[in-house]
Each structure stands twice: as C-alpha cells, then as structure tokens.
Model the fold of this input.
Amino acid sequence: MLTRIIMVGAAALLPLCVHAQSIPPDTRPLALAEAIELAIAANPGLRAARLGVAVAAAETSQAGSLPNPELALLQEGTARGTRTRTVQLSQRLELGGKRAARIGLADGDRRVAAQDAAVAQAELRADVTNAWFDALIAQERFELAQASLQLARKATDAATRRVAAGRISPIEQSRSQVAQSAVQLEVAQAVTGLALAQSRLAAFWAAQPTRPLAGAPAEQPLPPLEALLQRLDDAPRLRRALSQVEREGARVRLERSRRMPDVSVTLGTKRDDEIGRNQAVVGLSIPLPLFDRNAGAELAALRQADRAGAELEAERIGLTQALTQAWRRAELAQAEVNTIRNDILPAAQGAYDAAVTGFELGKFAFLDVMDAQRTLFQIRVQYLAALAERYRAGADIERCLPLAATTTGNTL
Done:
C-alpha cells in the first residue's frame, strides 16, 4: 500500500517537475530601475535596518507602560493565638513627567531608526547604481572587444590576401596576426571582467547573475548646484543627524525628570489573631534625594546633546563638500562625454574606415590601419571611462541628496 502511494505521488509530481525544467531562464534585459527594486526588496542589510524601526516601535510601546503594583504578605510570630498577618498592595507613582519623558526618548529612538533605514536605502540605491553601471561598462567593453576582434580578423584576412597576391611583405601578415592575438586576449579579459561585475551587482539581492543589462537611461541635464544645496535639509544623513539632536534633547528631559523622586502608596489590612481584629494599613514612601540627585546623568545627557549638535554641523559641512565635489565631477565628465561622442569618436571612426578602405585598395600600408585602429579603440575606451565617471558622480549626488524627480532610476 505504501509503495502504491509513493508511485501515485511521484506520478502527480512528475508533470510539475517537467514543467519547471521546461521554463526557460529569464533573459530579459535588466534595467537600472528593476535592479534597484530587486535590491530594495531583498537586500539583507536594508531589511535589518527596517527591522530596527520595528524594534524601536516596540520599545516605544513598552516605554508607555505604568509601573506594576507590588503585593506583599507579612507575618509576625508563628503561634496560632499570637501571630499577626499583614497583606498590603503598593503602587509606585511616577512624578516629574518621567513617563512622558520616557515615551519621548523612545519615540526619538524610533525616529533615529527610521532615518537609519532611510540612509541605508539611499546608500543601497547609490551602491546598486554604481554596480549596475560598472556591469554595463563591462558589458560594453566586452562588446567592444568582440567588435575589435572582428575588425582585427578583417584586417588579417585583407593582409593575407595581399600577401598571396604579392603586394605586401609577409611581415605585414605577421603583424596583423599579432594584433589579432592581442585583441583575443582583450576579449578573454573582458569576459572575466563582465562576469565579476555581474556577480557584484547580483550580490545586492543575493542572486546569481543570469541576465544581460539594458541600455543606460537617458542622460538628463544636471540640476544647478545652488538648487541642490538649497535642498540639503532633505538629505537622509542630515535628517538622521537632526533626529539624533532631538533624541538627545529627549534624553536630557528624561534625566531632569528623574531628579523628582517617585512616591509609593501602600494599602492593606492587618489581622491580629490574639485580639481577633482586622486593621487597615495605609502607607506612603518617599525617597530622600540626599546622596544621589542624578546630577551626573543629567550633565552627561547635556554634553551628549551638545555633541549631537556639533555632529549635525559637521554632517552639514561634509555633505555640502561631498555634494559640491560630486556635482563638479559630473559636470566635467558630462563635458568629456559630449566632446568625445560628438567630435572625437566620429572623426576617429572615419579615419579608421578610410584607412581600411585605402589598405584594401593598396593606397595605405598596414601600419596605417593598425595606428587608426589603435586610436579608435583607445578613444572608445576613453569614452566608456568618461561615461562611467558621469554615472558614478550622479550616483554620489543621489547618495548625498536623492532627487525628488527620481523614483527608481538615476536620471542624472
């Protein structure tokens, strides 16, 4: 009977397994916006920061709890006829606004945790953006290396035909073959670089790199630096520092409230077996602040508040410098990208095409083709480097100050 059940279950699961194996892998191009969404949804570090907000919220709820009452049982003597028994209930009453101050401090912790999560998300967006563009540049380098290999093979074939026709020396053919071998090495290096870059990108959401990358988003003009600096108060790191200042202010209020001693009220009854009578017990307990007035804790809280204020100013200065430097880098890189793309790259491509055509017609030497090819490849690599720097600078700008117009992609 058990064997029959296993066979029936296996027969039922077999179509599902076959269907799972028949599902083709996802080969859709991975856009930057989707990469950021995947990282935000599955990144363990960001999830830990968000759990910190939940922890702080639970602590805020606990901070509002009232002190528990205390039930006490006291017996004097052991003989049945002479013993007395006292049952009393004590309740501590918090004075000086301790409960409100405690709730305020816990709420400050919650706001700091929320800003920590916002900072972590902004850092994650910038890191994913950098990794995505690193992978994109590696992918384009690989495609460029493949195109270079095709051109090198084309030049080698042309040199071979001309050597066979007796128009050029066999040395030219050897040079073309050496150039082709060098380009093949570049292709192998580009394959390794692409695999590493894709692996670093997919690590942000703990996945295996299996998808190619989509093209770069459309480049948008840089916002004016003055406009960015005016919105500096919206920076997550600055908001976090401001929340820390408010939190330390709440701590100062809590320590000041602790200067006021709490009062404990006691109510109960006392049974005297000797006379057979019950007596009411009423008590009031007030600590005398003779030795500990909480002065040291209050002074420490005040100094911590001063420290938080100084850290806020330091954070503002650091963010201003970082934002200005990133903006300058983006401006310089954008100018370099425009110059290479609009002027230098078309001229180099035209010179190379003319050299190849002239070589095939016997008007140019093979060295002229190699020089033109080397110049074109160097300019393409320079263009990719400038483009990567442009997007890295844009990501650093959003690391400092996420743009309001940006949802899940880098528009800088």
The longest strand covers residues 84-93. The two ends are 67 Å apart (CA to CA). DSSP finds nine helices and four strands in the chain. Strands lie at 70-76, 84-93, 263-272, 277-285.
